[in-house]
Amino acid sequence: MDILLQFIDIILHIDRYLGGIIQDFGVWSYIILFVVIFCETGLVVTPLLPGDSLLFAAGALAAIGALDPLLLILTISSAALLGDTANYWLGYFVGPKIFHKEKVRFLNKEYLNRTHQFYEKHGGKTVIIARFIPIIRTFAPFVAGIGRMPYWRFITFSFIAAVSWPVIFVTAGFYFGNLPVVKKYFSLAIVGIILVSVIPIMVEMVRMRLAAKKPR
């Protein structure tokens, strides 16, 4: 329980924690950000690491000179692209065995199935759509590897997503993160970002449940 509360506190006050990291580690903060984004994207067992909220907070700190915005976007884009690639090949080589097991330690099979259904509906562009949806973006490259999507096709979609994602969220944080009302209610802004990010998957889950209940 203490770990969960600490995790929630980090998410809600991510601007403070990130500010502390920048103050303590200076230029090494870019490496820390790279590792966090790479793990959230590239390790199928870490889907709950902060993503959108972290980018927004980093953009807000870049606006006050704590980070270089261009270097920040380059760092995050590189981490996302490399994470996608690592996750794709993990799915390609070991995914089929995992996908057909009933229970897999450290892996939420329900998340995997949801992502697979997402692919069934949206096809290759799922790689781009998923980049903006927490949890789904962690499993999308893995499922692409399982499905043997041609790597050149996957990496094309991945590149578009890996660049547009930080550009949008870092820019949003840069221009809006330091507005007085946003700074005052930063935790609520983070909650709002999370809710907006997960709305697509919630809508999709409801739609699939309703479709499943319809008589055939």
Q: What descriptors fit this protein?
A:
216 residues; single chain; 11 helices; mainly alpha
Fold and architecture overview:
About 80% of the residues lie in helices and about 0% in strands. The N and C termini lie far apart (about 45 Å).
> Total number of helical segments?
11
Q: How would you state the average pLDDT, rounded?
A: 84
User: Which H/E pattern describes the elements?
Assistant: HHHHHHHHHHH
Unreliable parts:
none
Number of strands: 0
Largest sheet: none
Distance between the termini: 44 Å
Would you kindly provide a brief summary of this structure?
The protein has 216 residues and is mostly helical. Helices cover 78% and strands 0% of the residues.
